Amino acid sequence: MKKLIIASMLILLAGTLAGQQPGTASISNRPQDQLVTVSTANTHLIYRVSGRDGRLYQAYLGKKLSSPDAILQSRTRELQAYPGYGAGSLFEPAIRITHNDGNPSLDLIYRGYTTDKPDANRTNMHIMLSDTIYNVNVTLHITAFSKEDVIEQWTEIVHNEAKPVTIFLYASSMLNFDAGSYWLAQFHGDWAEEMKSVETQLTSGIKIIDTKLGTRAHMYQTPVFMLSLNGKAGENEGDVVAGTLGWSGNFQFMFEIDELNTLRIRSGINPFASEYMLYPRKSFKTPSFIFTFSSTGKGAASRNLHAWARNYGLLDGNGQRMTLLNNWETTYFDFNEQKLAGLLDDTKKMGLDVFLLDDGWFANKYPRNNDMAGLGDWQENKAKLPNGLGYLVKEADAKGVKFGIWIEPEMVNPKSELYEKHPEWVLKFPNRQEVYYRNQLVLDLSNPEVMDFVYSTVDGMLTKYPGIAFIKWDCNSMIMNPYSAYLKDRQSHLYVDYVNNLYSVLEKLRKKYPRLPVMLCSGGGGRVDYGALKYFTEFWASDNTDPLERIYIQWGYSYFFPSVSVCNHITSWGKQSLKFRTDVAMMGKMGYDIQVNELNEKELKFSQDAIANYRRLSEVIWKGDLYRLVSPYESDRAVLMYVNESKTKAVLFAYTLNARYGETFGKVRLQGLDPAKTYRIQEINIFSEARRMGPPDSGRSYSGDYLMKIGINAGSPTPLTSAVYEISE
Ligand code: GLA
Q1: Domain boundaries in the chain?
Q2: pLDDT at 186 over 80
Q3: Which pTM does this prediction carry?
Q4: Which residue's CA lies nearest to atom 7 of ligand 1?
């Protein structure tokens, strides 16, 4: 039911009080001021419409207030909620537009808001702003997810000038903070070293986290951050804002601290080389900025985002997932039908659900026998697969497993028939030499013909082989040659149109194949964000599967993404025991990429048992609340646990990474249990040949109260050992 709430049409004289800083509201009690309040179960985001100048100011963001009206008496400094360039603010604006007559300013006045409630948990709010003189309307859309304590913000811009206007900057969100100090945890990396976390204090001036890579856009920076107010927050204490942008292209987070120590965070598409010509009456929608505020530290902030993601952000977030055997690291490009048939047998033997055939199965004129050729020619390679994919789908079915396939449909090798046939579909400068990344180029998704090609490549395959039960969608190159033959004089639309058109293709595919599991991959985790994840059931976290490295990588993702979305495979990277590798992979969506026939009898048995344990406990691991107990960034071990909603079952993972001479590890206090319940601790995934953690609490029963106040021994002084405990009421 759509309910229109008082749209107060404030036609007010804009004026600046003498001596007051432009862009800030007066701080005296003004009865004509009005509050616009967004609330979740525990958070308030409150705007104040100034009776003095008609502008919208952010008055509060934080822990829910018992009487928000107290804000009307507030004497804190307030900054414009969405300042236009040229409207008095001396700091970074949220939006910048040049009008038809060349005037580069935008002065946005509050015009009212509407709300609607799609269900009991969600409230949508649409706050309307428009310029005092020019016919430009900006709507701030806000969705409050009550029980998850998550707020989603995005912006829509429409104008009615005679000719197109150019928008140079178009933030999704602008948030203001007035704290004593600000600590920013950022997450960055590279291929095989995703999501490294660094936390630093912000100082006066601007800090920007961004990307300009276009595709594989998050290879160096993931669009996520955690901001702690008034000192570094812990897992269970401190005020924290965890934010993320749902956009798979160039993004930018800008953190600006002014002379009064006020912080503005602007989130959105990176304005770099992306000014957009907006036609009259056409709307420009920004991607969503999704955030949560926690007054009880980072742990709760992560749990809020996880719950939100499972319910709203990730495709089929509360559904089931398949365990898989992948052939990438075991065969690379070197396989044939017979080898693959053997791998189908191995999938069955291990007790896994699906065999995923990776790169190398396609192209004939320029066969895909390495990464130099063939991308774009999505026909089965006749030498490797004389009987086509159909044979493998059938064989899989006969053996009682499912079949999945790798594809990279947005890319092309110059050595391909596609390139020969459609050089105009490729992003490249008309008069410069092509620059390659992994010997490949990016197709021009701003071109509707290319959108059709990408759609029909995937749809064609699924139509021809309806038995395909899983897809891994890869994207290995960034845009090295940002020029589209199709866009002609609108080159600065490329980065934006590419992503929006990719989403349109995915949307169309999802209409036809709503539940097919698809793994999001981008040379590892080069495209992990909630813009893409609405179309994907899971993502490949990193090509680095060395379990020691993985503990850090998975730890990084765990701040923002639920474990059900994080694919972890047991491979032969790293020198750790099979048990250690298995325990690390089990923390999320477990899979395998190993030579099953090289496992000895004990290893095979251990793996089969571990897979059975995983099946039994996956509901807790995927959907339980995550508690990070001991951080690998702060100690020589890593310990975390998942607890189910009814607090009857938990799984604890403990890893010893290193140990100094004489170093001792104390007990680990558990979290999230019911103090009144009694729990039995049972070690699982025991591999007799791997060193056991000790001294074991396995087999003992304790109250939740004891476990949370005293804890268990979940550490051993032996480096590279691990233990998994099943904790049951
Ligand atoms: C990327 C992926 C890998 C694998 C290869 C295939 O690097 O991250 O998992 O699929 O491509 O070429």
Answers
A1: 3-313, 627-728
A2: yes
A3: 0.95
A4: 523
